[in-house]
Amino acid sequence: MVLEIKKACKNFGGLSAVSDVSFHIQKGEIFGLIGPNGAGKTTMFNLITSMFPLTSGDIVFNGENISGRKPYQITEKGICRTFQNIRLFPKMTALENVMVGEHCRSHSGVLKSVFRTKSQRAEEDRIRKRAGELLAFVGLGDYGDVAAENLAYGQQRRLEIARAMASSPQLLLLDEPAAGMNETETSDLFQLIKKIQKQGMTVLLIEHDMPLVMKLCDRIAVLNFGKKIAEGTPSEIQNNHDVIEAYLGREEEELHA
Amino acid sequence: MLAELINPYYLQVASFVLINIILGISVYIPLSTGQLSLASAGFMGMGAYTSALLTIHFELPIVLGIIAGTLVAGIMGVLIGIPTLRLQGVYLAIVTLGFGEVIRVLFVNWESLTKGSVGLSGIPHMGREILASLREFGFNPQSLGLQNNQFIFLTIFFLLLVITAFIIWFFRRQHSSRVGRAFAAIKLDEKAAESMGINITYYKVLAFAQGAVIAGFAGALYAHVLAYISPADFAYHRAVEILVFTVFGGSEVIWGPVFGSLFLTLMPEVLRFISEYRYMLYGLIIIIMMAVRPQGLIDVHLLELLKSKTAKRRQKYGAGNQKSM
């Protein structure tokens, strides 16, 4: 088990954004987190990465309780994320963005950096080489020198994935990676996430594109109003009465109407 | 012949240009993590007073005095940097400005130590001390065809030139490294930087403290170049002046504050009649720059443009050469 969420609760003032949510993710699987807007999916991501503190509950990663740690320590442990509203470093080049992602897997401090010691130069070469490989992996091999803000929207989404992968996470959190993508881009994304899974990374995915989620995920949890209403394989979820009523049902009715 | 060309006045102006460049860099470094600090004048004062008092009262060698002044400013930088971490933009600017005023008022009121607003005089002069120690080895400036005065100012100038060059080199190296990337990431998006595994507390305090160290160092140098300091040297006006160096020159690349300090220190000297209206002009510069070019005169694009132009010229030149061959 890579990640285990135990009775996670998060209140903002009197509002309960996430209440009593538990689920666990097996190593190597693609786990989907779905639910209507405002169901608490992104809040769940922010809790896992410690951007927000939990109100109560525990988050266990590889057998270690990681609740209450700083966000950068979570990344060091091996969890890294992308953002729903893209948050690249706009003025940096694509390559530099990915190189920043490798920060916690490198060590050179001020003095080593200024005096360019042998180990520092070797480390920089390694970071640069790996960043180039990751760019090629997500299909941006030719865009290394382009400023992130000048990339097309779909490319920015893929760059965010490369940047997150640069910290060599065991668990990759993708927050609506297909948002705003057209069909071709979405099918490229499908291939990419499958490729990431083949590399041995576990993926936790928030996504609204249901065909993509159903095709991609091994298991799915459904949130509604901050509560988990179902968990299971895509076919189980598709046939779950509560889910159809809360979420998919509405869509089906519209489709058949 | 050479001796007539070396004018102590010009050398002194050049030395102040160099000190101001170091001060400009002390604002640029915290700013490269997105922290707008106006505390440079305060840290400068701490460096200056620490070094001056130690060298006057304990007859410490100037070098040790300067090191002590730099360290005190740096420690203060860490102490101020940690509690102000949560503050952003204009709030940090106000707090750091307040800190500068506290330091100045401390210098004015702690009369038993600082002689209040009268200031400290008789601070060991860097150039004279160097000359005195060289004399002990039987050196005489006349052997170079220089008067004592010329030799003193020339020594100070070259010493400061080497120091400034080192500081620029240091921070350019730091900029293009893992540390520099972390600084830039924090400036562009703090939350995203933190999610990418960057310990933002550490790097923000590091940048703030580096700025304090540099400012304290510049202050200590200032004390031993001028041999006289008073609280007025480190007042609000100085804080704004240092800020304007960076606002005008540019805050994206280190050449921004370097150019800003150079230009704005030389201008009132060259155009004497402007000197009286200096602060009016600074106000005007801030308003115009914020409206027209908030990143300052020298930014990344301008540098790239210059680079590609010189590259083209070189190509042309190279091609011409080949033809002639």
TrEMBL record, chain A:
Biological process terms in GO annotation: D-alanine transmembrane transport; L-alanine transport; L-isoleucine import across plasma membrane; L-valine import across plasma membrane
Gene Ontology CC entries for this record: plasma membrane
UniProt cross-references to InterPro entries, sorted A to Z: AAA+_ATPase, ABC_AA/LPS_Transport, ABC_transporter-like_ATP-bd, ABC_transporter-like_CS, BCA_ABC_TP_C, P-loop_NTPase
ABC transporter domain span: 3-250
Alphabetical list of CDD domains matching this protein: ABC_Mj1267_LivG_branched (cd03219)
Top-rank taxon, per record: Bacteria
GO molecular function: ATP binding; ATP hydrolysis activity; L-isoleucine transmembrane transporter activity; L-phenylalanine transmembrane transporter activity; L-valine transmembrane transporter activity
UniProt keyword terms in alphabetical order: ATP-binding, Nucleotide-binding, Transport
Keyword Transport tagged: yes
Keyword Transferase annotated: no
Pfam families: ABC_tran (PF00005), BCA_ABC_TP_C (PF12399)
Protein name per the record: ABC transporter
Species this protein is from: Mesobacillus campisalis
From TrEMBL, chain B:
Pfam families for this protein: BPD_transp_2
Keywords tagged on the record: Cell membrane, Membrane, Transmembrane, Transmembrane helix
GO-annotated molecular function: branched-chain amino acid transmembrane transporter activity
GO cellular component: plasma membrane
Topology with respect to the bilayer: Multi-pass membrane protein
Domain of life: Bacteria
Keyword DNA repair set for record: no
Transmembrane intervals: 6-29, 36-56, 62-82, 89-107, 151-171, 205-230, 242-267, 279-298
Keyword Lipid metabolism attributed: no
PANTHER family membership: HIGH-AFFINITY BRANCHED-CHAIN AMINO ACID TRANSPORT PROTEIN BRAE (PTHR30482:SF10), HIGH-AFFINITY BRANCHED-CHAIN AMINO ACID TRANSPORT SYSTEM PERMEASE (PTHR30482)
Protein name as annotated: Amino acid ABC transporter
Organism of origin: Mesobacillus campisalis
